[in-house]
Amino acid sequence: MPIKATVPIRIAVQILQAVIARYRGIFVVFVTRVVRSILYLWRKGSKGVYYAFKLIFFQRSLVFTFAIAYIYEVVPKLLKKTLSHFYRFKFDTLHEDLASILVSPFSSDNLAIFLARLVATMNALNPLFVKMLAPLVQEKQVRFASTFMAGLTAALLNFPNFQEERIQKDRFYTFDWTLILATKAIDSVMSTVFSRIIDLPPGTSGFSDLVLCTVAVYLLMDAWFYNPEKLNPSYLKWLNKMSNIDADVLQGMRYLRDGSLNYGPASAGLPNQHHFENVARKYGKDASLGDLTIHDKLPCEVLHQFRSKSCVKHAAYTFFSQFATAFKFYGSVNLFVYTMVKKFYGNPCKIFLRTIRSSLSLTSLSTLHWCCICAVRNYHPHIYDQRFWDVMGPKIGAAVASFGIAFESAIRRSDLLTVIAPKALGTLLDSTPSEKNLWMETIVFSVSFAILVAYARSNPARLRGLIGKGFGYLIK
């Protein structure tokens, strides 16, 4: 062996010896209790095997988790497939399609099977960690610590295989789930820490939710405008559909940001210099309206998609068209919940007002966004060039428009934060499926899952929001 190679090996051996010497007592207790637990089950024979089988596979948490995941996977697909057959009036293959949907959750790469394996492994390991940790931690902390270790170990054992199988179909599937668990875990830990350090006034939670929602909306709107590759493709598709903005207009703004499109005759050779000219031709207008080599400022009517030269009229059009789209979306969702879930139980007027409120919230985002874009482009300070303010317009607009979330109620904002916070966090991270990123994703998922299940079984009040309470109900 070369002399140079022996130096780091010796250092590693010395470090290992020091660690063993320091933690030898804990390690001996750990191994001893594992051996005792195995011998105990062995002596019990068939009764021990039956007890272990019942402990792992017939706990409430496992049954409920699998059932909810199965329903989550199956019901939307059943409705979509059934409606598609009815629209086409073709029912010859309906039974085969429905049978395929009902069976699909039992595949190894499905969420229901993964969660079942995850919870079953955690349930099996939990009693062992209780025995091992009982002499090492305080009595009141045993439940939290043992559940945390069981959840962490179960996730580290099961998540990598699930991640490897799902990433071949959808890169963002495990990435999104990891972000959801991470944001909920951070929320639970932070609320616990702050509650012990300072006595917060009653309205602090609602105010913090408003601030976090505002920041999350800004990050999402900015990414949608300038960095769409950071968003889940399905979510990006939904945003494009709800916004009613021509994709070519958005692309032109990205070209301005990247510098491949600019003002002045000197920019004639840039690769995307004729982009807005092509947009004008697309709408049957004079191509010179989009020629940035002859304009000091791109006419706003090009960004308005030639609906109007007036920014005020375009803002009004955006408001009413966006409200109609949002009202249709939220109305359909609330009507489905009212008829199918609540079985016509509840006040229809409140549901109608809730639909209007949510529609106004979404509408205000687009309207304020475009008002700011036009205002910044036309009335900016006489510093920097026009391209700078064209690029800054959507960013400033996203910051101002994010306050439109205030239209929502405090309860609704809390639930909405559970949905948008993970997506906003994802815009700050690299979602490329490299080996390092996938390894980090596994660690974050495992730690977050362990924190959540530990709180769910020891202090479920720390799990806030609809998803948090639902998670606590499933795992307890």
TrEMBL record:
Record keywords, A-Z: Membrane, Transmembrane, Transmembrane helix
Record bears the keyword Transferase: no
TM annotation in the entry: 23-42, 49-72, 438-456
PANTHER family in the record: TRANSMEMBRANE PROTEIN 135, TRANSMEMBRANE PROTEIN 135-RELATED
This protein's name: Transmembrane protein 135 N-terminal domain-containing protein
UniProt source species: Lodderomyces beijingensis
